[in-house]
Design goal:
There is one protein chain. The protein is of the alpha+beta class. It has a domain of 69 residues: Alpha-Beta Plaits, CATH 3.30.70. The chain has 10 helices and 6 strands, in the order αααββαβαββαβαααα. It has a 4-stranded antiparallel sheet with strand order 4-5-3-6, sandwiched between helices. The chain has a two-stranded antiparallel ribbon with strand order 1-2.
C-alpha cells in the first residue's frame, strides 16, 4: 500500500473559516469584535463578506459563539481540537517508552456514517497519529502516556465515531509489523522540521524591523506552518519517528511565538482583545480536514 504524505506538511488553502477559528483560538479570555476579524482578514486577501458568512456558519455548527454584545469566541465544538493544537508546548509529557505493542482502531460502521462524521473520525485518528494498515483498521505505537484508556478518551473527545473499537494489538507477524512501521514518513517529516526551523530563524531576524502589517502576516503564516507540523506530529518512538527533530522545532517555535505575539499585540490591543498566544495559520486542523 502506498504511503500517504503526512498531514500538516502540505497545507490546504487559507479560507475565511480557518482564519476565523485560528484568530479566535488566540484569545486568553473574553471575545473578539467582528471588526478585528474583518480588518485582520483583509491582510490576507479575505473579504469582509466571507468573514461574516464564516462567523454565521460557525455559530450554526457550534464552532463559534456570539455573546450579547456581538463579540465572538470559540464554540464548544472547536475547543477539544484547539486544546490539542495548543498542547504543542507539552508534547514530550504525552509520551512513555514503547514496548512494541500497538494501539488499534477498527471502524466497523463506515458505510452508515455521514460524510461529516467520517471527516471527524478521520481527523481524530490523524491528530493522534493513527495510520490505516488495512481498510477500516488504523494503528499507532502504544507509546502515549495515557495508554489505551487515555487514547479512547482522547479519540472520543476529538470526534471518533461511537461505533469504533479501540484496543491494544500485540505480536504482529513480521511482515505486518514491517508494513506497520512503514506507514509514517519519518524522513519527510524530519526534513520538514529542519526546513521550518530555518524559516523561523530567518523570520525572527526580520520581524522586529518589519512594519506592523507585514510582521502580522509573516508571523501568522510561518508560525502556523510550524504549529501544523507539531499538532499533526504522530509522536512516534525511534526509529519510526524523528523525536529529536521534533523537539528542536518545538524549542525554536517557543522563541518565535513570543515574537509573533509582539507582532500582533498593538493591533489586538486597539480592539480590546486580550491575547493568549500568537495568531497562527493552523488551517484545516479544526475542521475535519476540510477548509
Amino acid at each position: 500500500m502506498p504511503r500517504k504524505p503526512d498531514a500538516g506538511i502540505e497545507p490546504r488553502p487559507l479560507t475565511a473559516k480557518s482564519f476565523v477559528l485560528d484568530l479566535l483560538s488566540t484569545l486568553r479570555r473574553g471575545a473578539m469584535p467582528v471588526q478585528a476579524l474583518v480588518e485582520s482578514a483583509a491582510l490576507f486577501g479575505i473579504a469582509s463578506g466571507s468573514v461574516r458568512v464564516a462567523l454565521s456558519r460557525g455559530c450554526a455548527a457550534g464552532l463559534v459563539e456570539r455573546d450579547e454584545r456581538g463579540l465572538y469566541r470559540l464554540g464548544a465544538a472547536s475547543r477539544a481540537v484547539q486544546e490539542r493544537v495548543a498542547g504543542w508546548r507539552r508534547l514530550e509529557s504525552r509520551l512513555r517508552p514503547w514496548s512494541g505493542a500497538w494501539l488499534a482502531v477498527l471502524s466497523t460502521r463506515r458505510g452508515n456514517a455521514s460524510r461529516a462524521a467520517q471527516r471527524r473520525s478521520e481527523r481524530a485518528l490523524r491528530l493522534l497519529g493513527f495510520r490505516e494498515l488495512e481498510r477500516g483498521l488504523a494503528l499507532r505505537p502504544d507509546n502515549l502516556a495515557g495508554g489505551l484508556t487515555g487514547a479512547r478518551e482522547d479519540l472520543a473527545a476529538l470526534g471518533l465515531a461511537a461505533g469504533a473499537l479501540v484496543f491494544e494489538l500485540r505480536d504482529l507477524d513480521p511482515v505486518s509489523a514491517a508494513r506497520a512501521r512503514g506507514l509514517w514518513d519519518g524522513d519527510g517529516r524530519a526534513a520538514a522540521y529542519r526546513r521550518h526551523r530555518r524559516a523561523l530563524a530567518a523570520s525572527a531576524r526580520r520581524l522586529p524591523a518589519l512594519p506592523e502589517r507585514l510582521a502580522m502576516v509573516e508571523s501568522f503564516r510561518l508560525g502556523g506552518g510550524a504549529l501544523r507540523l507539531l499538532a499533526h506530529d504522530p509522536l512516534l518512538p525511534e526509529p519510526i519517528g524523528a523525536p529529536a527533530e521534533r523537539s528542536a522545532l518545538a524549542e525554536t517555535m517557543r522563541r518565535y511565538d513570543a515574537l509573533g505575539r509582539a507582532s500582533w499585540a498593538s493591533f489586538l490591543a486597539r480592539h480590546g482583545v486580550l491575547q493568549g498566544a500568537a495568531p497562527a495559520d493552523t488551517r484545516g486542523i479544526a475542521q475535519g480536514g476540510r477548509s
